């Protein structure tokens, strides 16, 4: 509107990004190298073996996590990706998602712990998380492209920024939800704050934290197409190509591959969060054996009808 005062927020942000690009180029080059090397290494691990090896390993993990039915479903889903000739793209996408998720969790979980222990920090970080979750993801790509250039690195950076908020929120929620009487019992046993965090709060908050991990992975998957637009390749690259060429067949095949990966990762993280499946039973059995040997003190877990040993002394 003519004659009305206008805040030059965009110009200020542009100047800030220009200053960062001009003065911190070396730092971001190092970060770019780390992201690209991690992606290349993981992509090599997933792509080098025959697809049969990866399918068998993934099915075995699924059986341990949830059971035979989930294992069979995982194998069928991955073989479908092979059958539509999207295997290499799927492995590249999985590598990008895993690298971005690891970095997002490395940042998010400590911030969530700090927010749970410090009310002032919690009040400060909440609007920042609101900003990260509501800002359109394309906006992240502009400075990411300037700092990391075209390729997989800006896609990973934009994915980390977009996906880390639920990891922080649910880590804080899980730790704040731990029964105070259990924490006080830890203090009564003479446990330090660090041991109470590691051996009481984090184990009891694990289902909620795993829900945060699940949300981080799902948001990372939702960034696949946007990452493909900046040259990250994988399934996102094929979906972008199908849009440019109006190729319905390619778009459907790449889209279904994304859906299959999302379902497998969602059920897998959900199973570990709810402590179901053979793997969780083995861990629980090991914990009870340690408790029977007098090394731990049992405390209730998040599920009301069950209990698990947690060491406090």
Explained architecture:
- It is built from 14 helices and 2 strands; from the N terminus they run H-H-H-H-H-H-H-H-H-H-H-H-H-H-E-E.
- By secondary structure, it is mainly alpha-helical.
- It has a two-stranded antiparallel ribbon with strand order 1-2.
- Helix 3 packs antiparallel against helix 4.
- The chain starts with 8 loop residues before the first helix and ends with a strand.
List the helices and strands and how they pair.
Layout: H1 9-23, H2 25-47, H3 51-65, H4 68-83, H5 87-117, H6 119-134, H7 137-148, H8 152-176, H9 180-188, H10 193-222, H11 224-229, H12 234-245, H13 248-274, H14 278-292, E1 297-300, E2 307-310
Antiparallel strand pairs: 1-2
Helix pairs in contact: 2-5, 2-8, 3-4, 4-13, 5-6, 5-8, 5-10, 5-12, 6-8, 7-8, 8-10, 9-10, 10-13, 12-13
Order of helices and strands: HHHHHHHHHHHHHHEE
Percent strand equals under 5%
Instruction: Give the rounded overall mean pLDDT.
Output: 82
Q: How can the largest sheet be summarized?
A: 2 strands, antiparallel
Q: What Rg is obtained from the alpha carbons, in whole angstroms?
A: 22 Å
**Individual helix count:** 14
Number of DSSP-assigned strands: 2
Structural class: mainly alpha
The unreliable regions are: 297-313
**Order of the strands making up the biggest sheet:** 1-2
CA-CA gap between termini? 67 Å
Chain oligomer state: single chain
What share of residues is helical? over 70%
Q: Can you tell me the overall shape?
A: flat
